[in-house]
Each structure stands twice: as structure tokens, then as C-alpha cells.
């Protein structure tokens, strides 16, 4: 059983190696790959050093599963090549998420739709995964009519470049004297833009969350309004979510559903903060309360480690499903 990690030197790729090890994924061989400038670098799996290979070398080794976190351009070029060679690809970029022929999977929500013919599977946006884990079981019970969400997203969502900008600014570096991930200072600031703006005024991140919500829940009738914001936090995303249901609900039933939801931890007291989620895979939910301004309205607050459940862990969970259903020999 050979498992490739494409983009193994990035923040998410490194976390994928970590999560594969933690969950004891049944891999006989791990094949790390990255861009040309990273070939020969050392990464670690279960404490053992591995030399980073070229994607050509990894493809020639005929992996069974490949976890991609190398960006959309690399996924567009390479994922079909891996799939053609019989390798199942789990792609963390936005490249395949809206492709009607590719599945967009959160295992706890729609993992059952995976089929033997699926060779390129899309991993959703980190903010979408975080929001839908608690919302999917509520939608099943009460039918969500409308979602209004504001996100507070950490700099790790921008990779090493975002982290480096925040650290440089906190050390007092003069603006423009360092590589920047954002159009202005992020330290002591918030930036209501993640990705380029489209003609409708939505940023790319906002459009992703709208489209991915419809696809994962298989319901285009849900109204989704999103504002995504970058905040000077080292790790962990937060979201303020306002829901309007079609059906009336009791708050006790909402709590019961969230207590029972896989991958969700509802706090009985207090509220979650990003530091609480660091290094953990659950989505933590709190500040659960009625919104009396609309019929059947509900407010909640949720946080999650965006590098884990928002990216690496979800990808590994998809790989586990692929292994269990289609690759066990």
C-alpha cells in the first residue's frame, strides 16, 4: 500500500504526514513530493526522515492513493495523470470542487456517496467543512432556509507566507521589507478579503463557501450569505453562524443533535476559542441561542483547527474510506 503526499513541505502537506501517522493509516510506503526547489529536502513520517521526491518519481512508483496539497495549478495538471495510472487522488485545492463529475466529500456528511469509479475526490474549503459539520444534521432535521456566516480566519490559511508576514510585523519590520501574503498589515488588524473579488462583490473564499455548501448538502435552495475575514491569529478559524430554519425547533433538540453529531463538540458551558481547537480534529460549538428577529432563527459560534479537520484530517479520512471500500486486498 503506497501513499503519496504531493506538496509535502507545505503547512498542510506536513500536517497530512502527521495525521497519517497519528491515525495509523495502513501505508507500507510513504512517497513525499513537492516542487522542484524542494526536491531532496527532508520531511518526517513517524519520526523517520524521508527525502522529498519529484512528482515524476512518485508517479513512477505507482502509489495507490495520493493526497494533493500543492495548489490548483498542480492539481489540474497532475491529478488526471495520477488517476489515469490507477491512483486515487484526494485533492485539497479548489481545482475540482465545483466540477459536477467530481465528488466533494466531508466523510461524516456525505462519505456514503463515494463510488468505485471515483478517482479524483475533492476536499472542501476549510471554512466550509467547519461550518457544515454542525449544520448538516440540523439541516436534516429542521431544513435550513438561510445561512448568514462571518468567518474569522487565521493566517495559517495562507500557508507559510501568511505566518511569516504576521511574525515579521510583530517583530516590527517595516511594511514592504518582507514578503507579504496580504494587501495590507495583518498584525493588529483585520482584513475583510480572502481571495480576489468577483463581479458580484464576493471574494473567492465567500463564493467557495456558497457553492460548496449547496453541493455538499445537495440542496441549491438554501440561501447562503458569507463574509470572510482574515484575522491576526496564528492558527484556528472561527465562525459566527446565523440560521433560519423552515421548521420550528426546540433548543433542547438542537443541543441533542449537536451532542450526537460525529466530529462536533458542543460546549455545555462557556464558549470555544481557536486555542482550544489547536491540534484537535473536532469542530467546537458554543454560544447557542435563538435569534428572535426571524421565525425559527438560531445563532451559533464554532471554531476548528483549519490545518487539521479543515484540510489534512478530512483528506486522510477520505483516504480511509477509499482504502476500506475499494483498496483492501
Can you tell me about this structure?
With 329 residues, the protein is an alpha/beta fold. The chain folds into 2 domains: 2-123 and 311-327, Rossmann fold (3-Layer(aba) Sandwich), CATH 3.40.50.720; 127-306, 2-Layer Sandwich (Dihydrodipicolinate Reductase, domain 2). 34% of the residues lie in helices and 24% in strands. The strands form 3 sheets. Strands 2-1-5-6-8-7 form a 6-stranded parallel sheet, with helices on both faces. Helix 1 (11-22) crosses helix 10 (308-327), helix 5 runs parallel beside helix 7 (204-217) and helix 5 (126-142) packs across helix 10 (308-327). The longest helix has 20 residues, at 308-327. It is globular and about 60 Å long. The mean pLDDT is 97.
Give the structure's gist in a few sentences.
With 329 residues, this protein is of the alpha/beta class. The chain has helices at 11-22, 55-60, 72-84, 107-110, 126-142, 159-170, 204-217, 251-260, 274-277, 308-327; strands spanning 2-6, 29-33, 42-45, 48-51, 65-68, 88-91, 103-104, 120-122, 144-153, 223-230, 237-245, 264-266, 283-291, 297-304.
Amino acid at each position: 500500500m503506497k501513499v503519496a503526499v504531493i506538496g509535502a513541505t507545505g503547512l498542510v502537506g506536513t500536517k497530512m504526514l502527521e495525521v497519517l501517522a497519528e491515525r495509523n493509516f495502513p501505508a507500507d510506503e510513504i512517497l513525499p513530493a513537492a516542487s522542484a526547489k524542494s526536491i531532496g529536502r527532508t520531511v518526517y513520517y513517524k519520526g523517520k526522515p524521508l527525502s522529498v521526491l519529484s512528482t515524476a518519481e512518485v508517479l513512477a512508483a505507482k502509489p495507490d492513493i495520493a493526497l494533493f496539497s500543492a495548489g490548483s495549478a498542480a492539481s489540474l495538471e497532475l491529478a488526471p495523470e495520477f488517476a489515469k495510472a490507477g491512483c486515487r487522488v484526494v485533492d485539497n485545492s479548489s481545482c475540482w470542487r465545483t466540477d459536477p463529475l467530481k465528488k466533494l466529500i466531508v466523510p461524516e456528511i456525505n462519505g456514503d456517496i463515494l463510488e468505485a469509479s471515483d478517482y479524483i475526490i475533492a476536499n472542501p474549503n476549510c471554512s466550509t467543512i467547519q461550518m457544515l459539520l454542525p449544520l448538516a444534521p440540523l439541516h436534516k432535521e429542521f431544513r435550513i432556509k438561510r445561512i448568514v456566516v462571518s468567518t474569522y480566519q487565521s493566517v495559517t490559511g495562507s500557508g507559510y507566507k501568511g505566518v511569516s508576514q504576521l511574525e515579521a510585523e510583530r517583530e516590527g519590520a517595516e511594511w514592504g521589507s518582507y514578503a507579504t501574503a496580504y494587501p495590507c498589515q495583518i498584525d493588529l488588524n483585520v482584513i475583510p478579503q480572502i481571495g480576489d473579488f468577483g463581479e458580484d462583490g464576493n471574494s473567492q473564499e465567500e463564493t467557495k463557501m456558497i457553492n460548496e455548501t449547496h453541493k455538499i448538502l445537495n440542496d441549491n435552495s438554501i440561501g447562503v450569505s458569507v463574509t470572510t475575514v482574515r484575522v491576526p491569529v496564528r492558527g484556528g478559524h472561527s465562525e459566527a453562524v446565523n440560521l433560519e430554519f423552515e421548521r420550528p425547533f426546540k433548543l433542547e433538540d438542537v443541543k441533542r443533535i449537536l451532542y450526537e453529531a460525529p466530529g462536533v463538540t458542543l460546549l455545555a458551558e462557556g464558549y470555544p476559542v481557536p486555542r482550544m481547537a489547536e491540534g484537535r480534529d473536532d469542530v467546537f460549538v458554543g454560544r447557542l441561542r435563538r435569534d428572535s428577529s426571524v421565525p425559527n432563527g438560531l445563532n451559533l459560534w464554532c471554531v476548528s483547527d483549519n490545518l487539521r479537520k479543515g484540510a489534512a484530517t478530512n483528506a486522510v479520512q477520505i483516504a480511509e474510506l477509499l482504502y476500506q471500500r475499494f483498496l483492501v486486498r
